[in-house]
Amino acid sequence: MKLPVKDTPEFLVQSQDGPAVRNRCGKRVNARVLWLSESLDLKKGDKVALVAASDQPTIETIFACLKLGLELLLLPEAASPEELEVLVQKAKSILVLGSAPMLGIPSHQIPTKPEKVEQEFSLDLESKVLFPTSGSSGPSKIVIHKLSSLLEVAQASNQVTGLASGDNWLLTLPLNHVGGFSVLLRVVLVGAKLSIPDRQGLSSLSDNFSFFSPSHISLVPVMLRKLVDSAIKLNFSVLKAALVSGDALSPNLSSTAVEAGIPVLTSYGSTELGSTAFSNTIDDADPANSSYGNPLAGIEIKILESGEIALRGPNLFLGYLGEAADYSSEWFTTGDLGEIDSDRRLSIRGRKSRIIISGGENVHPEEIESIARQVKGVKEAIVIAESDEKWGQRPVLLVRVDSTRGFASEPDSESAHETLEQRLLRKLKEGLSGFKVPATVKIVEEFKYLPSGKLDYRS
Length: 459
Hints:
Elements: E1 10-13, E2 20-22, H1 26-39, E3 47-51, H2 56-68, E4 71-75, H3 81-91, E5 95-97, E6 107-108, E7 128-132, E8 142-146, H4 147-161, E9 168-170, H5 178-190, E10 193-195, H6 205-212, E11 216-219, H7 221-229, E12 241-244, H8 251-259, E13 264-268, E14 278-279, E15 294-295, E16 300-303, E17 308-312, E18 319-320, E19 332-340, E20 346-351, E21 356-358, E22 361-363, H9 365-373, E23 378-388, E24 392-401, H10 420-431, E25 440-444
Parallel strand pairs: 1-10, 3-4, 3-5, 4-7, 5-6, 9-10, 9-11, 11-12, 12-13, 24-25
Antiparallel strand pairs: 1-2, 7-8, 8-18, 13-14, 14-15, 16-17, 17-19, 19-20, 21-22, 23-24
Helix pairs in contact: 1-2, 4-5
C-alpha cells in the first residue's frame, strides 16, 4: 500500500529545551527491514512476536515488520515471563523481538540506532497483527487483524477527530492494545507528529501533556480524571480532541472535563472492532449527551432481540487465534447491550456477561454504577454479584471515595447528616426499581486496573 504521505511520522521526544523534532523515520525503518530480512532471515508471512515497548526503536521495528509482511504478535511489556511464553507458543512465533527472558525461545534485542537506507516507504496490506485482549470481563484471547482493516478504521477515525498534517498525537496507551497501536496508523495516514514520552524522564500524564502540548490524545476514563485533577496547571487550548474509550464515562467527569477546556469525544469499540466503531465528532461533542455517537464510515449495526449489539464492516477482525470462525464478513455480536436512536446514535446499557439475575429479574450493573458515579464524593463505582439464599443473587455496590472532593467536608443542606453510604442508597432508591437497589454499599480504598487503564471487573 502506498500511503498518502511522503514518509513515516515525525517523532517528538524529550529534550532539555522542550520537545525535539526527530527526522521522519522512513530511512531507519528501511534499515530495520534489512536487519529483519538479512540478519534474522525473516520473510513475508513469518510469525514473530514483539515486546511492545512505547519507544522509538520499537515503533520503527513495528513499521518494518508491517512493511515486510510479517504476522506480528504484540506482547504486553508488563507481562511475566511465564505469560509471555504462553502467548508466544500459542501464536507459534519463531522468534521474539525485544527484551523477553523466555527459556527455549530465540529473542533478539532491537538495535537502537540503525543505519539509514534510501527507499520508498510502504506497508504490506496483507500483514497480520495479533493482539492479546485485556480480558477485563472474561478470559483473554488473541485477536487477529489484517493491516488493511486496521488502516480502514484509522482513516475513518481521522475524519472524526480532525487529525491533520502538522498535528501532534501524544502516545498514552500501550502499543499491545489496539487503542495504542491504532495511533501509529492514524499519524502515518496524515503525516502527523507522534509524541513519545520518555519513560526515564517525565512520568505523570499531566507532566507529559504539559511538555508536549498535543493536539490529540487517547484516554480511558481514569486517565481523563488525572488530567481533570491537574487542570489548574495545564493549558488545553491547543487540544483539538481527547478520544475517550475503554470504560463507561460518568456524566459528572465528562462535564467537569469539558468545563476545564478538554474537548471530550466519547467512542465505542473493542479489540475485535479495530479500536473504534462509534464516536462523537468534534462538532457534536456534548457532555450532556450520553451516547457514543454515530458509526464510523462503512460500519453497519443491528440490535438483536436480546438487545445485544451486532456489527459488520471493513473494521472487523479475522478471528480468534486457535478458532476456525472467520468474522471478517459476518455479523459480530459484541457482548454489549445497547440501543440506536433515530439519528443512529449508540447508547450502551452494559455488558451481557455482567448481568445479575436477582429473583428472576435482570439487573444491569452499569445502570447502578452510572447513578453512583454522579453522587458527590464518589470517584469510582463497581457493582458485583453476591450470592443470596432468597433471591439467588443480589447486587453489591463498591465505591472509591474522591479524597480531593471529600463528601464529609461539603455536605449539602438536603442531607447534612447523611453518611456517603446513606446518600448513595437514597439516590439509588430514587432512580431505580427496588430489585435493582444494591443490598450493600461498601467503601474500598482501591480498585484493580488493567495495564490499559481499564477497570478489571474480574478482581
